[in-house]
Amino acid sequence: MLRVERIRVSYDEVPALHEVSFKVEAGQIVSIVGANGAGKSTILKSISSLLRPDEGAIYFENQRIDQTPPHKVVDLGIAHVPEGRRLFARLTVTQNLTLGAYTRKSPEHRESTLRKIFKIFPVLDQRKSQAAGTLSGGEQQMLAIARGLMSKPKLLMLDEPSIGIMPKLITEIFEMVQQVNREEGLTILLVEQNVQEALEIAHYAYVLQTGRVVMEGKPEEILEADMVRRSYLGL
Q1: Residue 85: which pLDDT band, with cuts at 50, 70 and 90?
Q2: Is 180 exposed, middle or buried (0-12, 13-18, 19+ CB in 10 A)?
Q3: Where are the domains of the chain?
Q4: pTM score, whole prediction
Q5: Which of 73, 158, 173, 213 has the most Cβ atoms closer than 10 angstroms to its Cβ?
Q6: How far is CA 56 from the centre of its chain?
Q7: Closest-CA residue to 82 (of 40, 19, 123, 136)
Q8: CA 4 to CA 15: how far, in whole Å?
Q9: Is residue 8 helix, strand or coil?
Q10: Tens digit of each residue's pLDDT (9 = 90 or more) over 123-165
Q11: Residues 152, 137 contacting (CB under 8 angstroms)
């Protein structure tokens, strides 16, 4: 579904990604793990066309997209849930969700999607008339993910969904991500520094260090790697 081929990305001529390559197969959860500053968010911004690679190419369903305008990338079926959630704090939960469906022209489709979202995230149904800025951190993250789902994407990209959230809610959020993948068949690309949680739900994973992919494989293989156990799991 998604192929990233040897992309190099820089900020003001300072390299952030060095010939990064990976792929995401349809129906999978793929995790990219690594420390803060490794370049994980830069990868998602490049796929969304918020950043343009200096070299390399990005393909989605065999169509090259690295020169495509960001709003057209959304139209193709890619939803990006950014780090920090980026909600409209003064708008209600329902209003935030509706804005996530701006590419869907049929109100009937929006309403049916909204009903499905509330089944997956029942706490959002309970808070639907509440301002997004008054929600807890975990509830705001659920809202950010739900807003991404409103466009009915083929690929959902999640950027550090565990940041600033208490451990119990982190587990709950990752369980909901698994549920959406399992029940809807939605393909998910997750970037995380919470290595244990990210690998537990993934079908395949990549380890990123200082802008380079240094390891890839099945999650159980990566969890057993000495480098990962020492650097990320403190073992």
Answers
A1: confident
A2: buried
A3: 2-77+153-231, 86-143
A4: 0.91
A5: 158
A6: 21
A7: 40
A8: 17
A9: strand
A10: 999 999 999 999 998 999 999 999 999 989 999 999 999 888 8
A11: no
The pLDDT, as a whole number, for residue 169 is 86
28 CB-side CA count, 13 A: 18
Burial of 220: CB neighbours in 10 Å, binned 0-12, 13-18, 19+: exposed
Whether 189 and 2 have beta carbons less than 8 Å apart is answered as yes
β-strands 212-217, 204-209 pairing: antiparallel
- Among 58, 17, 11, residue whose Cα is nearest residue 39: 17
Q: CA-to-CA distance for 202 and 13, rounded, in angstroms?
A: 33
- List CB contacts of 20: < 8 A, sequence separation 6 or more: 4, 6, 7, 8, 39, 43, 56, 208, 211, 212, 213
Residues forming a β-bridge with 209: 212
Q: Which two tokens stand for residue 22?
A: 């990976």
Q: CA 143, CA 123: separation in Å to the nearest integer?
A: 10
- The Cα 219–Cα 40 span in angstroms is 17
- pLDDT of res. 235: 47
Fold classified for 2-77+153-231: Rossmann fold (3.40.50)
**Cα 54 from Cα 29, distance rounded (Å):** 27
Q: Which two tokens stand for residue 135?
A: 């929600």
Token pair recorded at residue 111 = 């309403």
- The yes-or-no verdict on residue 47 having pLDDT over 70 is yes
